[in-house]
């Protein structure tokens, strides 16, 4: 009778999509992923709404929908006043998969999973991921593994710092080389720690697939609105080459596993091209009577255009050290300059707004007023939706925003009320945000952008709902394609395969259809009742021991997200 007691290796390919993987597997470019495909089961993996890194990976980590874990994005409204603050793993509610495994006595090794900073104590080792402020931050547990990696001559990097400088072919070339080098070093560190500290569950996430798809899609895809035929001569295969490089890393990891180890490959979301539709959503809300701008920064249009040009020129030509030195010598000029083209919101006269500085996941937040009734809130939301759905693509005459999603319809749990009130369907429509202007008639609310993509600044590709799930080894069916898998299903499936009960507050299910009937019949799913410190907090106002970033850490996070292209 088959028994449940497997070890598990999860390899995360951030943003990977079957739309690219399957043809490249068929063509022989990805032999190790092809080996997994033939020897195991695979499905598209439905992400969260929105399909954005913090929200999606947190749902994997906890097996819960965002309404329970409460982490919706890289930013959330600052509770101490207007504006936003950056989030991290401490903002997430509920027990992590590796904490659950540690609680049951299993040893774990986790490297570079986004939204794991600060690193939690585990029965094993953990290196946090994308939300780490800086490489000098305390992002490794236990702390001595930093020296262990350094003594082995491995230069470990969290992610790329200079994607925003890809304005020339030479810089693009260098960035690709740096990305491949960083992922190779990540594999070496993971391999070193795994050998020195054997674990029953291991996981590593590679971010290269996400980064390169964001910035190189328009070289690969002749149907892209901003296809770059000239750049395609050298960079048409940049995304494929990135998948091939990660496939090599996967092959090295697979060569070291035994017959009792199951290999899972997953992504947090899929990917696809952006369109050249550009929206200025705060202008849309202003014209609907829902937002007011402060007028103190009104300057002649040509002055703003010059300031924007100068900003872009300096960012693209000065080195990081030069920019840092300039900012240090002239702090007042730096603050003045950064605010030249910023449309400041008059919060006292605003009912709804979008954080346009954070352009990767546009969401509409409604201002909550004392004494506001539920009917008034619903009416305000209806006005927002009408304004968004009234936007018409100037080229096609079709709606620019196809759908608007509401938290109470897609989430459930105590933190649902903390989510943005309206989520326009950017992942379905492909549009990007542009900065609004305080004066009317300076820029249109919607336009088709005909200018070439600015390397490293403007996304050429963006997230889609369906990611990747592949599983091989143990009781998984061979060469089996199925559907209906969701990102919240991975954690309960892992626990089941490792012979452990599934916490009853997880929203995911065990993917039994991908597992042999004999194994499932011999090993019924067990559940455990979750209480006390491991349960989701029922209080939606709870900070659940949040560790907010310091001002300096917030600035570092902002710079890193800016380097990756997520914020302006």
TrEMBL record:
Pfam families: Phosphodiest. It comes from the Bacteria. Gene3D superfamilies: Alkaline Phosphatase, subunit A (3.40.720.10). One of its GO terms (molecular function) is hydrolase activity. Signal peptide: none annotated. PANTHER family: BIS(5'-ADENOSYL)-TRIPHOSPHATASE (PTHR10151:SF120), ECTONUCLEOTIDE PYROPHOSPHATASE/PHOSPHODIESTERASE (PTHR10151). This is Alkaline phosphatase family protein. It comes from Aeoliella straminimaris.
């Amino acid at each position: 009778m088959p028994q449940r007691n497997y070890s598990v290796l999860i390899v995360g390919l951030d943003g990977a999509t079957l739309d690219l993987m399957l043809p490249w597997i068929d063509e022989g470019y990805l032999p190790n992923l092809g080996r997994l495909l033939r020897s195991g089961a695979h499905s598209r993996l439905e992400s969260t709404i929105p399909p954005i890194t913090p929200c999606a990976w947190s749902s994997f980590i906890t097996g819960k929908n965002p309404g329970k874990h409460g982490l919706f994005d890289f930013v959330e409204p600052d509770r101490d006043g207007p504006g936003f603050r950056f989030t991290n793993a401490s903002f997430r509610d509920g027990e992590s998969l590796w904490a659950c495994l540690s609680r049951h006595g299993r040893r774990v090794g986790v490297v570079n999973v986004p939204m794991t900073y600060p690193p939690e104590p585990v029965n094993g080792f953990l290196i946090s991921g994308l939300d780490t402020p800086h490489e000098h931050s305390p992002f490794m547990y236990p702390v001595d593994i930093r020296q262990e990696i350094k003594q082995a001559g491995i230069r470990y990097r969290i992610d790329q710092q200079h994607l925003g400088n890809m304005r020339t072919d030479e810089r693009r070339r260098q960035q690709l080389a740096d990305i491949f080098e960083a992922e190779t070093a990540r594999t070496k560190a993971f391999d070193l720690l795994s050998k020195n500290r054997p674990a029953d569950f291991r996981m590593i996430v590679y971010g290269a697939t996400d980064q390169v798809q964001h910035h190189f899609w328009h070289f690969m895809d002749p149907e892209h609105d901003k296809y770059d035929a000239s750049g395609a001569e050298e960079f048409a295969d940049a995304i494929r080459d990135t998948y091939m490089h990660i496939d090599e890393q996967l092959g090295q990891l697979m060569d070291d596993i035994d017959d009792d180890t199951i290999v899972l490959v997953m992504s947090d979301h899929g990917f696809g091209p952006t369109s050249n539709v550009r929206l200025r959503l705060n202008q849309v809300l202003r014209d609907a009577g829902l937002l007011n701008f402060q007028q103190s920064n009104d300057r002649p249009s040509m002055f703003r255009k010059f300031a924007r040009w100068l900003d872009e020129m300096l960012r693209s030509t000065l080195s990081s050290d030069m920019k840092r030195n300039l900012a240090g010598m002239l702090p007042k000029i730096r603050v003045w300059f950064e605010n030249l083209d910023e449309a400041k919101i008059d919060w006292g006269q605003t009912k709804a707004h979008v954080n346009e500085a954070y352009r990767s996941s546009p969401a509409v937040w409604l201002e909550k007023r004392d004494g506001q009734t539920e009917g008034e809130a619903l009416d305000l939301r209806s006005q927002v939706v009408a304004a968004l759905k009234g936007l018409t693509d100037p080229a096609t005459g079709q709606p620019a925003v196809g759908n608007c999603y509401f938290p109470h319809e897609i989430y459930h749990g105590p933190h649902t009320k903390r989510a943005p009130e309206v989520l326009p369907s950017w992942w379905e429509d492909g549009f990007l945000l542009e900065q609004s202007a305080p004066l009317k008639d300076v820029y249109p609310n919607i336009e088709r952008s005909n200018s070439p993509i600015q390397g490293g600044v403007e996304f050429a590709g963006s997230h889609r709902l369906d990611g990747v799930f592949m599983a091989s080894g143990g009781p998984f069916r061979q060469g089996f394609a199925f559907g209906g898998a969701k990102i919240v299903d991975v954690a309960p499936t892992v626990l089941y395969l490792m012979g452990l009960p599934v916490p009853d507050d997880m929203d995911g299910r065990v993917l039994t259809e991908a597992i042999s009937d004999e194994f499932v019949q011999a090993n019924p799913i067990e559940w455990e009742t979750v209480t006390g410190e491991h349960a989701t907090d029922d209080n939606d106002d709870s900070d659940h021991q949040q560790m907010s970033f310091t001002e300096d850490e917030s600035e570092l996070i902002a710079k890193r997200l800016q380097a990756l292209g997520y914020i302006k």
